[in-house]
Design brief:
The protein is an alpha+beta fold. It folds into two domains: 50 residues, Roll (Membrane-bound Lytic Murein Transglycosylase D, Chain A); 104 residues, endopeptidase fold (from Nostoc punctiforme) (Alpha-Beta Complex), CATH 3.90.1720. The chain has five helices and ten strands. A six-stranded antiparallel beta sheet has the order 5-10-6-7-8-9. It has a two-stranded antiparallel sheet with strand order 1-2. It has a two-stranded antiparallel ribbon with strand order 3-4. The longest helix is centred in the middle third of the chain and has 27 residues.
């Protein structure tokens, strides 16, 4: 067994399998997504088959060290989320282009993919794939930087980035990149839910 410096031989690791998510792994080992991301210095919840994750540290890791690591990771993620929101806002007014994925024109999922890619987070291309990549969270727990998805019938038809205070930013067919109330007259009837890409 490979032992990371500062960890004991009692450390428990999980090798990621196809279909695994951090939430699923956390349930298996009775831990949390936040602890796993902190222990492995993950900047997002993206994981890959074959990746080896420390899920339960041995006693020599020390509870205080784990807590300190989690606090530092939370602080880094908050700073990163602020940067993501600022970067997303820099494209306000960029026109909507079907299948667009650059500052010359975006569609909704092309826009979110482009913004997150700037920070090393590789989102899939479609709105549905992006929404399901993250961890679904209740609206009451939504925070800036979370994805917010909308549906038409059973089809996930739109996605954007929650900016806080009940608003989200997205590339819309009517106004291009724009900030809109989640619970506005149109969007509230199509709201599917929120999905967390960056652990808190």
């Amino acid at each position: 067994m490979f032992i990371l410096p500062g960890h004991s031989s009692a450390d428990t690791y999980h090798t990621v399998n196809s279909g695994d998510s951090l939430w699923k792994i956390s349930r298996i080992y009775n831990t949390t997504v936040e602890k796993i991301t902190s222990l492995n210095a993950l900047d997002s919840i993206t994981i890959y088959p074959g990746q080896r994750l420390l899920v339960v540290p041995g006693s020599s890791a020390g509870g205080d060290a784990v807590q300190a690591g989690m606090a530092n990771q939370v602080s880094r993620n908050r700073d990163r989320i602020d940067e993501i929101i600022d970067y997303a806002r820099s494209f306000l007014g960029v026109p909507y282009v079907s299948a667009g994925g650059s500052p010359s024109g975006f569609d909704c999922s092309g826009y979110t993919k482009y913004v997150f890619a700037r920070f090393g987070i590789d989102l899939p291309r479609t709105a549905a794939q992006q929404y399901h990549m993250g961890q679904a969270i209740p609206a009451s727990e939504a925070r800036p930087g979370d994805l917010v998805a909308f549906k038409t019938g059973d089809y996930i038809s739109h996605i954007g980035i929650y900016t806080g205070n009940g608003n989200f930013i997205s590339a819309t067919s009517s106004n291009g990149v724009d900030i809109t109330p989640v619970y506005g007259s149109y969007w509230k009837d199509h709201l599917l839910g929120f999905s967390r890409i960056i652990p808190r």
